[in-house]
Amino acid sequence: MRNDLVRLTGSRGIMIASLLAFLGLSAGELILLLVVLLTLVVARNRLGEYGQLIAINSKLILWIAQGFGVGRIRFAPGTFGSLVGLLWFALLLAPGSIWFYALGLVAGIFLSVWLCGAAEKILNRTDPASVVLDEIIALPLCFAVWVGTLYYKSGVMPAPAHFFSHGNWALTFGIFAAFRLFDVLKPWPVRQSQRLPRGWGVTMDDVLAALYVNALVTLAWSIPVGS
Contact at 8 Å (CB) between 110 and 38? Predict the structure, then answer.
């Protein structure tokens, strides 16, 4: 009986190790992702069931939704929020896992929908300018084509320093500027997405603006450069 238990435990350990190797995650990174996702689900359900949660944690919710206070800057809060998004981008790249980057993007979107929607209720305003978490979580998505291309070619995730090196900082700045441009101009369907209910309207316009940036990067790289 004991031998059977040892064999079963050993086989499960091999399966878990194989899964981690396939995903390119360490055990710590996998646990962190599971904790983040579980926290989002539990918090979202609690917020839906108990409206008092907003009142109790209103200061904390606003602090996060306003980009940890950055959104309270009166001049161009969206731009300053996008700068914080560069830090979030670097954090998603730091573990060196494509799965961590991808799941971080998805978790960030749902977190923004929840917190930005709650912030709207607290401030009693639709898409207030001080709420910049949507810019923060969308900024790393702007680099998806670039990150994916590098990963496809080398099989290794690029380090954060790659995007801020002497040879690449201009492209990084161009992507940042393009995101701000699309976020301000709001071409179809970016502006229309703001009509979505609650935090979806706050978040999805920035997500769509980020997709526009990726389309622009793809188009720019597809144009042959003459000698």
Answer: no
CB 77 within 8 A of CB 130: yes
Of the candidates 78, 184, 99, 194, which has an alpha carbon nearest to the alpha carbon of residue 147? 99
* Counts for the chain of helices (H) and strands (E), in that order: 11, 0
User: Which tokens sit at 161?
Assistant: 């320093």
In one-letter notation, the amino acid at residue 113 is V
Close Cβ partners of 225 (under 8 Å, ≥ 6 residues apart): none
pLDDT value of position 111: 94
- Residue 113 confidence (pLDDT): 95
Domain layout of the chain by residue ranges: 32-222
Q: How far is CA 148 from the centre of its chain?
A: 15
Residues comprising the chain, all counted:
227
User: What pLDDT is stored for residue 2 in this prediction?
Assistant: 43
Following CA atoms 47, 197, 213, 128 in sequence, which dihedral angle do they give, to the nearest 10 degrees?
-80
Helix, strand, or coil (residue 15): helix
Alpha-carbon gap, residue 6 to 115, rounded angstroms: 45
